[in-house]
Amino acid sequence: MSSTSLEPLSAVQLRPGRPPILHVESPECASTWAAEHREALRAQVTEHGVVLVRGLGLREADQVRAVFAGLAGELMAEREAFAPRQIHGPGLYSSTAWPTNQPMCMHHELSYTLECPGLMLFACLEAPSEGGATAVADAERVLQALPTALSERFEREGWLLTRSYNDEIGASVAESFGTDDPAAIERYCRAHAIDFAWQPDGSLRTRQLRGAVVRHPLTGRRCWFNQIAFLNEWTLSPEVREYLVDVYGEDGLPFNTRFADSTPIGEDIIQLINSTYEAHTAREPWQAGDLMLVDNIRTAHSREAFTGERQVLVAMAEPQRLADSRPTVEVARS
């Protein structure tokens, strides 16, 4: 790597409670700048797990797509989405559709899939008037801070994700699997260790057992890597949970998480996981034009509640098949 490539990154700011931030003077061509400094930027992500680049002046989807391609090459198509997104071209999406007054707690993108993105890319085209940060948390430190008995149980047994697809809440079958052909959906489920059952009304329910603690493919360090808290019923606001349970029943929630033996995860455990995330959270309000790169395995991310308009584009890259993402124990069946 040339000294020219390293020089602009020597001013990365490291401050407690904030992600590493790199301030750059607006280049003539953001995509050219990104391609030229790809190695140096990726080195920062390897070292810190995340880097926020401020000053690129990103303004439109085509520009963002070119920047993302210069940094990560081919972008991934999302599969098994839990909520819909707008598509802005191959591999380029809006942030997940989610109520603006409801936070999305810490999670690792698609940590319940057998092939997950190793890198997340975010670009802010329009910043909200208040809130809306994409906050981050170090998964190694979160794992170390959790009670040993709890983390060891999840590491040993894994966690169970249950989903009930409907046309009202969350991603539809077609949005999640990229097709509404039952045969194709069944082939996908069999190939990706997903237990499935078609209901009398034609809807689909699935169950999948996944690892909760994985080793980072580059560093070998153990990371708390899952969506146990985020997709659990107790992370929902009380009024939303009450409504969903009333409409769909305990076993028909659009998504929920359980212990590997199918027993419920208590509200106290979910609160503990979320409070541990909060204790290790770094946040920086978005500014229009910002770029952020996140190591999806080492670093969890969230989306905070906000007011005003917010437009953040997202891409996933560098697919990883983690050997420890699929426990060897059998999925519990009720």
From TrEMBL:
This is TauD/TfdA family dioxygenase. Residues 33-315 form the TauD/TfdA-like domain. Pfam families: TauD. It comes from Streptomyces milbemycinicus. InterPro entries: AlphaKG_dependent_hydroxylases (IPR050411), TauD-like_sf (IPR042098), TauD/TfdA-like (IPR003819). Keywords: Antibiotic biosynthesis, Dioxygenase, Iron, Oxidoreductase. The keyword Magnesium does not apply. Its cofactor is Fe(2+). The lineage of its organism: Bacteria, Bacillati, Actinomycetota, Actinomycetes, Kitasatosporales. Its EC number is 1.14.11.-. The keyword Zinc does not apply. GO terms for molecular function: dioxygenase activity.
